[in-house]
Design brief:
Structural class: mainly alpha
Shape: globular
Number of helices: 2
Distance between the termini: 28 Å
Helix content: 25-40%
Radius of gyration: 13 Å
């Protein structure tokens, strides 16, 4: 089973403010680390080009 967490930020500067200079390091809270068997050490970032509201 696989889970994906999506976090939305207004700019890369806000990502850096949240995660720090190494903003590609995966953010995995300590509580989550206690119950997960594994997780990616690095995260990926994507630019949203279009938002649809249904």
């Amino acid at each position: 089973m696989q889970f994906t967490t999506v976090m939305e930020f207004d700019s890369l500067d806000k990502v850096i403010a949240f995660q720090g200079e190494d903003y590609e390091a995966a953010y995995v809270p300590e509580e989550a680390r206690k119950i997960l068997r594994r997780w990616d050490e690095r995260s990926t970032h994507h630019e949203v080009r279009q938002v649809r509201h249904y």
